[in-house]
Amino acid sequence: MNFTSALSYCQSIGYSLVSIHSMAENSFLQKQAGFALGMTYQSFYIGLYSPSRQTNNWVYTDGSAYDFTNWIQGEPSGARWSVGFRLSDGKWQTVSNSASIPFVCSATFNNTSPASTTMVPMTTTFSGSGSTVSLNCAPQLTTYYLFHFVDGSGTSDATFTSTQELVTIMSSSDNLDLDNRGIQQNTRYMFGLMGSDFIGFPNNVTNVQQIYEAFNSLNSRIPFPPIFINYTASLTQMANNSIYNRFDPNKEAPPVAILYPGVQNVYGAQNIKDGVTALTNLGFKVLAVNMNAGITDLTANLNDALGPDNVYTYASTTTDAVAFIMRRLCIIKPTLS
């Protein structure tokens, strides 16, 4: 996306292209953008540009002060009037306004949560290949615990039972988190891979890099051809386990289950709906990633069961799938009293 289009996109969601006012912000942005972009891109747009096309006249699109610089030696050199942030070292370089590179949006706002009146100086989003992902939405009041179910992960409900047993063990340990009000968080919900040889991934997954690693690990384990899963039977059995008592919305964010179907469900669309209902009745938020972009009917069934905002169709770009997961997590909050 070129500079003008990037700015228009940010403004369309109430943001602007990111401004940077300290080395701390610069370092934070380099680290978090690196998590999201990996080795796919070398640089991204920030909000600095020269409207008069003069090397001594640089302004930010959000109107904030141009009070910090981190130019590469010899820059700004002239002839190019937008600024790219180089991922390799965090240095800035001039780039053409027409360059098609990712970009970062930011906004300054007050956190109006009744539990906190802390000023949040900057919320940042990354956009590449049409996806937006918050780079600093790691929960401050709670920790998200997620389940991963993958189509073809097992032919019986035994895999779900094994997961329940593991979660029971984990929840009885002292691996508990405290939020900034001292409320003890519940660790019965975990993020992992669902397989006959179940291997748990880090149970506390709260940033882009961890989700990226988990997604790649999960994707590498999907068998071919995939196996059909009876969602109603499997998810209902899981939901009926006493481990999954309804979460306390005043103390924790909803647990999140992510389904990864890769074949058309021979049990029908209603089967998916009934399985999802079993989880949502417990307070779960349910997302789905269609792992086979060629099966449009599967996407339609998932949209019908979950709503299109909770469904992503994966083609081949891990970054976009991770962006979908992360931005959905960013808007799932506990109901604080």
TrEMBL record:
Matching SMART domains: CLECT
SUPFAM superfamilies xref list: C-type lectin-like (SSF56436)
Superkingdom classification of source: Eukaryota
Pfam families documented for this protein: Lectin_C
Domain C-type lectin as annotated: residue spans: 1-106
PANTHER family to which the protein is assigned, alphabetical: MANNOSE, PHOSPHOLIPASE, LECTIN RECEPTOR RELATED (PTHR22803)
Record's protein name: C-type lectin domain-containing protein
Species, as recorded: Diploscapter pachys
